[in-house]
Amino acid sequence: MLSVFKSKKGFTLVEIMIVVAIIGILAAIAIPNFIKSRKMSRAKACVSNLKQIDGAVQQWALENKKAGTYTLTAADRPGIEAYLRGAWSTCPTNDSPYALNFQVQSSPVCPNYSATSDEFSLHVLP
Fold it and tell me: How many helices (H) and strands (E) does the chain have?
């Protein structure tokens, strides 16, 4: 006589639901941390760009005998770009270009900097 109950191999619905629930919990933990680390890395890249711009401006001003109170203009941009080794940098968050409208003695500022915004409050030289 043939057996009515055949051996079925596979996962039950409960087992699949447990696996999906575990994956959902792990994703709920990992995704916010990933977003936060991405924002932090962009802010650090922005600060690094600002340091490079500041170094290039200081070196250019020293070699061109510009005083600390000299305000940079668009005409100074090609000379400063020579110290940046290539194209003018942009903020990595949204590709906003850094402006050259500050004095030599002051630090460059990110166009996205906002002290009240959590996302852009770190886009400033320390």
Answer: 2, 0
Tens of pLDDT along the chain (126 residues) come to 555 666 677 888 999 999 999 999 999 999 999 999 998 998 898 888 889 899 999 999 999 999 989 999 888 888 888 888 765 678 888 888 888 888 999 888 888 888 787 777 888 888
Give me 58's structure tokens.
């200081």
Alpha helices in 64-82 (DSSP H): 77-81
Q: pTM (2 decimals)?
A: 0.75
Task: Give the length of the chain.
Answer: 126
**SS3 (DSSP) at 126:** coil
- Specify burial of residue 2 (Cβ count, 10 A radius: 0-12, 13-18, 19+): exposed
